[in-house]
Amino acid sequence: MIKTSASLSIIMKEPIMVTTGVYDFIKDQLHRKRVTPLEEELLKGELKSAVQLTSRELPSKVVKVGSLVLLKDHTIGIEKEFQVVGSGKSNPSKGKFAIDSSIVMAILGRNEGSVLDWPFKEGIRRLEILRVVNPN
């Protein structure tokens, strides 16, 4: 059964916080249709309420390029630590996921402690951001 975004329980008490560059990157991904239709719908909604800040203004516990993230996938019961890297620099075997990967698109701009359901190609998964460590 395919779910619509209306049936997803994304807990977004606060808007995502991103730099203008990341905001524009997400818009470009949408324009080029590099996300699923459900992801597109959700990301468009997030961009409408997104807070754009400079890199220095981003809170220390927000996921951004360079962040080291500990993520719990409640759907499949695993925790995974990885670093968010720039486009084309993904190396999952070394714990590096690029900004244009589905997993990073789901959590980009979110705070440590955020819980969300996100539509991946293999189905809806519940994610929780357990820890975010950003370089100085």
In short:
The chain contains three helices and seven strands; from the N terminus they run E-H-H-E-E-E-E-H-E-E. It is of the alpha/beta class and 136 residues long.
Shape: globular
Please state the second-level CATH architecture: Roll
Biggest sheet, spatial arrangement of strands: 5-4-3-7-6
Task: Give average pLDDT, whole number.
Answer: 90
Count of DSSP-assigned helices: 3
Low-confidence stretches: 1-7
The separation of the N and C termini measures: 44 Å
- Fraction of residues in helix: 10-25%
Major sheet details:
5 strands, mixed
How many E strands?
A: 7
**Strand composition percent:** 25-35%
Name of the CATH homologous superfamily: Transcription elongation factor, GreA/GreB, C-terminal domain
CATH topology name: Chitinase A, domain 3
Structural class: alpha/beta
CATH class label = Alpha Beta
Order of SSEs: EHHEEEEHEE
Q: How many structural domains?
A: 1
